[in-house]
Design goal:
Radius of gyration: 18 Å
Oligomer: single chain
Strand order of the largest sheet: 1-2-3
Shape: elongated
Number of domains: 1
Distance between the termini: 36 Å
Order of helices and strands: HHHEEHHE
Structural class: mainly alpha
Number of strands: 3
Helix content: 55-70%
Strand content: 5-15%
């Protein structure tokens, strides 16, 4: 029996899963938008659709969960407080649009919210573990940016 405990690399696994989920959601949303409008309204200069709004808010939430790098710094930003804000906005939209969405739109927002919430929980666990291990300072994530500090950037 070995005295070494297994090493768990949360950051790399989480990033890979988040990127795969982002790609899956983008593909699913693009297919839904193409089916409902004949193309992506925002890219084609046509009217903005519900799917375009869903994509925008989802992208923002994923960005603040470190799913892809900031274009200026090249580093992924982890700011759970902002990710939660965008997830909560989607929740409000889901609640306020009940009964007014097509079945495809309702399925898209419900599925997207479920996936984002699960990823958010995993991010919170990873942040808590990193704080316990001393890899990041308490308070540097989850409120630092809103309080005049800065959220940590995670190399991507």
């Amino acid at each position: 029996m070995s005295d070494e405990s297994p090493k768990i690399i949360v950051d790399d696994d989480w990033k890979r899963e988040a990127q795969a989920e982002k790609d899956r959601l983008a593909k699913q949303e693009a297919e839904a938008a193409a089916a409902s409008t004949g193309g992506d309204g925002a890219e084609m200069g046509g009217p903005i659709t519900f799917d375009d709004l869903l994509k925008m808010l989802t992208t923002q939430a994923l960005m603040y969960m470190g799913a892809f790098p900031d274009p200026q710094s090249g580093k992924a930003v982890v700011a759970p407080e902002y990710a939660k804000l965008y997830i909560d906005m989607l929740g409000v939209i889901e609640e306020k649009t009940k009964g007014n969405l097509t079945p495809e739109e309702a399925e898209a927002i419900t599925g997207t919210l479920y996936e984002l919430r699960m990823q958010f929980v995993e991010l919170q666990k990873a942040v808590e573990q990193a704080i316990q291990e001393g890899r990041i300072a308490p308070g540097s994530v989850g409120g630092g940016a809103g309080a005049g500090g800065s959220s940590p950037a995670v190399g991507g």
